[in-house]
Amino acid sequence: MMPGCLPSLTLLYLVCVLARALCALPEPSKRQHLPSHTPVLPHLPGVTLSLHQDYSQHLLPSYNRSVTEVRLTTEEGLVALLTSATVDINLYLLYDHTNYEVDGLVRSHQEVGSGDKSVTVVKYSEDLSPLQAVLTTTATHTGTRHVLVLCSTKNTQRIFQYVRERQLELPSLWWLMVGETDLSQTLQPLLWEGSLVTLAVRTSSTSYSIMISRVDSTGLPKFVPVGSWILTPSGPVVQVQEPLVPDPLKLYSDMSGRQLIVTANNNWPFFGLDKFRDGKVQKKTGIDIEIMNTLGQFLNFTYHVVSPADGQWGGPLPDGTVSGLIGQVARREAHVAICEITVTGSRETVVDFTIPYYLETLILVSRAPAEKNRVFAVFSPFSVQVWLCIVASTVAIGPIVSLLGHGLDLYVSWPPRRKLRDYSFNMYRNMVTQGNLLTTPHWPHRLVFFFWYLFCFYIYALYSGTLTAVLALPAYEEPIDSLTDLPDAVADGFTVGTLGDSNIEYMFKEAKEGIYKEVWGLFNHKDRSKSFFKTVDPGFDQITRRKFVLMNPQLNSEVRAAQRGKDKYHLGRQPFYPQGYGIACNKGAPFIPKFNQMLTRISQAGLIAYWKEKEIQMISGGPPAQDSTTERGPSAITLKHLQAAFFVLMMGFIVAVLALGLEFVVSKFLTSQMGEWTGTDHQWGSQ
Prior knowledge:
The chain is α/β, with parallel strands linked by helices.
């Protein structure tokens, strides 16, 4: 082998040592299932080390081999590198033609199809879409992934520029690079906070400096030296002061007092804000503020609050832009957004979310159902059909009894001598007063009277009991409780509304079928200002002013109802569309795992429920507002309840006056007719 190959061999041997130190783990219990294009290489025995072990107190094991032995075992060392990944670590080798030995070795092992460990090999090309496919494939998103880059300085710079432009960083992705030139100054401007890199740079023909990327207190990523690799006559020696691949959970347990930028809208009880004329905002109180304060206290960071100019929650738009809170995080104008933000698939294409810290549903909010008018309460115990049957029976019983009396004339010596009006009036009197003034010695009449009295008693008992219940307990209009009630409500003149440019609007807008699509057609699309609002407060104002139904999250609705007067609003009893609220973070933000861990602890401790009750009690002094139609006990009978009785009495007076007028007219008419007849008879008598 030519002497000129020694630096390249040294580079490869360093790669071998780094790979063993960074990626070697205990043997997996099960074989990993890999795609067909992944080469599988034989496993060579090596040193088993913990990935995140602290090496500050001792050296990594040195390989006691001479330089001559290194030359002879270069291929063996690279095989150890390629086989160092386990089922817990996804290892990817990205190389170009500047590393001829690597290229030749990879080609020689392409045909190998068995083994218990594997590595995914990606060859560099100007079109880096294969790399993007590897990094974004769902199957590769589980576990930690290490990408070992063996490319020229120019190609390495191109790779990181491509990753930055497409925001391909992930908290579980760590880059490993070995270079013969110092790439730290070249790569540093291309790194996001989510760029996790371990870099080995040659400082001499026999030594390398090892650096890792780290974010300083200003939030800028920089390379920090953590150790060195030196090739001695007795073999290579690696010295490091801290883990070469730090655990993000430990790395972000202390954020060194740095300041994060948090974006939010004024959305109490989650995030209350005061906005000033100069555009600045100041936080007040809220559940999300308590969460950020707790995270900052335990993770040692502060935060500055900003708010988007459009005041929207936002998300990706058809023109490719991103609006609202999500847009500020996607453009990295803020580190996180927290403000009752629903985790959705479309938003996850431009930002990364923490685990949901609060689960909630949507409800319908409308005005409190008004108490029904009592004018016709006297008729409410029976339906129209029952009333018609009672009237028909009362009208028919008099003629039936009268006909029965005429039938008695055929075989009795003393038949009844009563007129039809006597029978009809007494049958009606029996119905109303439950009393009888008629007596008869004849059994046909007695049997008819008996069953008529029984019928009247049954009707009277049902009527009086039901009427008492109707008058004593309040009756309300039918409330709007579910989505299926909305079509009838719109037909009755109600307008449906919600928060504009929000997840709620997108949910109904994107529906292809079912009740959501039907409801989307009930919004006022001709004049969006009547159905869609920037904040929920105008929607609550509309509820009390006109016929209006607002779709809104349940907790937000409970709080605003308590704040404005819970007796004015009705909260629908049938919630829909369960959703989770998460913290939106920059793509690839490495502090997400630590945030997830802290959010889990906060939730398990019951702090979010405690903060929720605390915010509600600030305005109501009690538990959350309940719907306005909660069952009440009987109330005293008032004039409002008895207005139907006076209405009936007034109707009787009016009918009596009309009857009096009709009798007077008829009497006058008959008198005039009799006068004419009398005059005519007198003339005929004179003749």
